[in-house]
Amino acid sequence: MEYMYAAMLLHSAGKKIEEESVTKVLEAAGSKPDSARVKALVASLKDVNIDEAIKKAAVAPVAAAPVAEGKQAEKKEEKPAEESKTEEEAAEGLSSLFG
Question: Is the per-residue pLDDT at 55 higher than 90?
Answer without folding.
Answer: no
